[in-house]
Amino acid sequence: MAALVWRSTDRGGSNFWQAISNPQSVAALKLTLIVSAVVVLLNAVFGTIVAWVLVRDDFRGKAVVNAVIDLPFALPTIVAGLTLLTLYGPKSPVGIDLAFSRYGIGAALLFVTLPFVVRTVQPVLYELDQDMEEAAASLGAPPQLIFRRVILPVLVPAILSGVAMSFARAIGEIGSVILISGNLPFKTQVSSVYITGLIESGNTPGAAAVSVLLLAISFATLLGIGALRRFTTRHDA
Amino acid sequence: MRSRLSLRITALLYLLAVLVGPVVMVFYRALEHGLGDFWDSISNGAALHALWLTVLIALIAVPLNTVFGVALSLAIVRRKFPGKGIVNAFVDLPLALSPVVVGLALLLLYGRQGWLGPWFTDRGLQIVFALPAMVLATIFISLPFVVREVVPVLREIGDEQEQAASTLGAGSWQTFRRITLPAIRWGVAYGVVLTAARSLGEFGAVNVVSGRIQGKTETATLYIDAAYLDFDQKGAYAVAVVLALISVVILIGMSVFRPTEETA
Known about the structure:
- The structure holds two protein chains of two kinds.
- Chain A is an all-alpha fold.
- Chain A is built from twelve helices and no strands.
- In chain A, α3 packs across α9.
- Chain A is globular and about 65 Å long.
- Chain B folds into two domains: 32 residues; 214 residues, MetI-like (MetI-like fold, Orthogonal Bundle), CATH 1.10.3720.10.
- The longest helix of chain B is centred in the N-terminal third of the chain and has 34 residues.
- The two termini of chain B are 29 Å apart.
- Chains A and B meet through α1, α3, α4, α5 and α6 of A and α1, α5, α6, α11 and α12 of B.
């Protein structure tokens, strides 16, 4: 890691600045951050719904559904990208072609980050006593109100920590994105694929500079997770 | 009741669209021309070598990470040493880091113009664009999993039994083997399963440090990428299905070993 930071400033600060501020690099980073942010928001909503269904609902085959959640952790990311291409690619049987588009990148990131929110919210929901919800219901609160005022506040720290983990994963993701994105500069080129391209064309200092930027964002996200964890454990105790 | 049902349907449809649908589809595509055709696609030299290389790297990385991960967990939970907080934070780093960045860092360290690269080259050892760097990259990427599973278990069991064992005259190795290891074995098992999954599927870092020489440093994931870009979609699907089948086995391992919420 030290070598990375060192090499990125090898040719002086101005080169470092040039490498990260050139239009293609900025476009890639912007795309990465925007798509990741949207994906993470979707994760927060659907992850919470899935976790709720897995904890509170009961139906046949629930154990299988619960196991399937871990699939993105078990499946190689390049395989994930390929599977998405077979269903949502040029030869899509359902008529949806997301290849070489931002939506394709979004779908890939949704796939690989799906477990994070589910797996952080699930244990909290298990622990949650239903007494308060019943009390609220007996006092005449409609389900939406109970969810918003009683359940959601307890879940927020878990959702946020899942969101932070998804975000960290999404901004660095390459395997699942590389095939479906088509890597079109200024259009569907994300930072990780951009860096790979720079390395392959021998521009190591440039690659190092953009990497350091990604590294800084990862660090910030990691620190955020740490702070969240401390915050929530303090409030548990 | 109706809202419960609609939530269930929403959740299941979402999982179907994002997860299950695509995976089923890749199996269909790989097998639509029959098993014989599928077999032809993976039984060529490059594909078989790629699969073998992937398994080989995992076979090196997983045991090393298991031993190192358990040792590191013990150090984090049971010992006090300067810089412990930093070590603790760094363990999680590979999870938040882009694999591409990890690959580049290794390249800069062990490459031809890297800090340590020339030293190894002088001694006839090639690290980058060869197996050692690919193993290193895989170890780095899959490092956190055992530690993250074992640390909470170690905290939970406490050290009373270990202390009791040592007052009764057990050596530290004996204490570890008889007391600590049996207590943490499920956590270790789950960590190993996660490590294996990550090792077999690694792409971004290996992509950078391997040089992607077909039949030499091309792993299964790199093979899929190359085959797809080469319009050999059948070949890509076939190897992808082999990896997906391994993932299903890993998934079953995960659901067996995963600490269950109800009892935790």
